[in-house]
TrEMBL record:
This is Benzyl alcohol O-benzoyltransferase. It comes from Urochloa decumbens. Residues 11-30, 201-220 are annotated as: Disordered. Keywords: Transferase. GO terms for molecular function: acyltransferase activity, transferring groups other than amino-acyl groups. The lineage of its organism: Eukaryota, Viridiplantae, Streptophyta, Embryophyta, Tracheophyta. Belongs to the plant acyltransferase family. Residues 21-30 have a biased composition (Basic and acidic residues).
Length: 433
């Protein structure tokens, strides 16, 4: 039975920087403003009751205003200039903030399963009218919902062109530090978006099959879609890694498993290409020069491409080897990032190749589990859901311990395909145990 509850919201308000900030225009990077990132993405964190009796909405709202002083571009608005280039006007208008109360306890949410799909998520992160545009709209929507038990839910929707997962975690951590009474964030934010601009002249040095100009595969009807999270405990992960072959990483093993099972579940015909892309963070790439505190998008999207029939009929080890091969350009990550920016500029910021595309984003080390507003670490912190073409790897606890030793993977598929997907996973796991 699905858990339902009431959520009472106060009127949305704009929270701007607590003090005067520069009024200027800043250009986004050529990685930031690609078409595939021109969307809003939701995250959610669930917190238990704290020792203090403070109101989490009041605490977070105050700290948010303080954090927007050093992070003042997030309080601005995006617009396009020549060639659809995105810039942010640092107007100080603020981010949207919603305060709410829910008639539910965290224990009830945990009993229902604290992984996507979350009960009443559309009420825990309410879509304020007129707030979901890419241009001229608030760049962040934040909702703090108090729970009956004294815990709360912190939900955030982000204009993806401004930050990736690591970047928004850096900002949320700054809000948390200020909420806990620190005088300033321990990490100073740095803009420096010009470091991920195309060279002059642009000169791509890799083929970048992730942006191949192939016809997109039609999406199934939204009304037929279901979301289900599959959780892999340490014993599962060890078996899957063993099945993936020697020296297979957790990411390679799980990405290969999910990709292969999804390809079979969707019955992608033999002779058609199946594509797996994955964001790879290049913040620490030697020679790229991104400074500590960089909070823009710093991911590239290498891709594996295989005949769908061969992928279905091959072994888990074969699929894992395709993922490893796709990762090889990351040995020259700085050059791969520059080449990506060059290609995006030359080709007018194309979307990723959408022909039978599946994206797996590894959020296990993004840092959501460490965001502390003064109530300790969240019971869950990470993406609020998934999409038909996008799943996440999220670190979760497999039991009552403190260690996040399991991996949750939310998947979105048509209902019939989801049943086949679950069956494929069961068969593949039995084969490697």
């Amino acid at each position: 039975m699905t858990l339902t509850f009431d959520v009472r919201r106060q009127h949305p308000e704009l929270v701007g920087p607590a003090r005067q900030t520069p009024r200027e225009t800043k250009r986004l990077s050529d990685i930031d403003d690609q078409d595939g990132l021109r969307k809003h993405i939701p995250f959610v964190l669930f917190y238990r009751r704290g020792a203090a009796a403070a109101d989490p909405a009041r605490v977070v709202r105050h700290a948010l205003g303080e954090a927007l002083v050093p992070y003042y571009p997030l309080a601005g608005r995006l617009r396009e200039v020549e060639g659809r280039k995105l810039v942010v006007d640092c107007t100080g208008e603020g981010v949207l903030f919603v305060e709410a109360d829910a008639g539910v306890r965290l224990a009830e949410l945990e009993a229902a399963g604290l992984t996507p799909p979350f009960p009443c998520m559309d009420q825990l992160l309410f879509d304020v009218d007129g707030s979901d545009g890419v241009l001229t709209c608030p760049l962040l929507l934040i909702q703090v919902t108090r729970l009956l038990c004294g815990g709360f839910v912190f939900a955030l929707r982000l204009n993806h062109t401004m930050c990736d997962a690591a970047g928004i975690v850096q900002f949320m951590s700054a809000v948390g530090e200020l909420a806990r009474g620190l005088p300033a964030p321990t990490v100073t934010p740095v803009w420096s978006r010009e470091l991920l601009n195309a060279r002059s002249p642009p000169r791509p040095s890799f083929s970048h099959n992730e942006y191949d100009p192939v016809p997109p595969t039609p999406f199934p009807p939204p009304g037929d879609m279901v979301t289900r999270t599959f959780t892999f405990v340490p014993a599962d992960i060890a078996a899957i890694k063993k099945g993936g072959g020697k020296a297979t990483t957790t990411f390679e093993a799980l990405a290969a498993l999910i990709w292969r099972a999804r390809t079979a579940a969707l019955k992608i015909p033999a002779g058609e290409d199946a594509r797996l892309a994955f964001p790879a963070d290049v913040r620490r790439a030697r020679g790229l020069g991104l400074p500590a505190g960089y909070y823009g998008n710093a991911c590239v999207y290498p891709a594996a491409v295989a005949d769908a029939g061969a992928l279905r009929c091959g072994s888990l080890g074969d699929a894992a080897e395709l993922v490893r091969e796709a990762k090889k350009p990351l040995a020259a990550a700085a050059e791969y990032a520059r080449s990506t920016a060059d290609l995006l500029a030359l080709r007018g910021r194309p979307l990723l190749a959408l022909g039978n595309l599946f994206i797996v984003s590894d959020n296990r080390r993004a840092g959501f589990g460490g965001v502390d507003f003064g109530w300790g670490q969240p019971a869950y912190g990470g993406p609020a859901g998934a999409m038909f073409v996008l799943s996440f790897l999220v670190a979760v606890r497999s039991g009552d311990g403190e260690e996040e030793d399991a991996v949750a993977v939310p998947v979105v598929l048509p209902r019939a395909a989801m049943d086949r997907f679950a069956s494929e996973l069961k068969t593949m796991l039995a084969a490697v145990r």
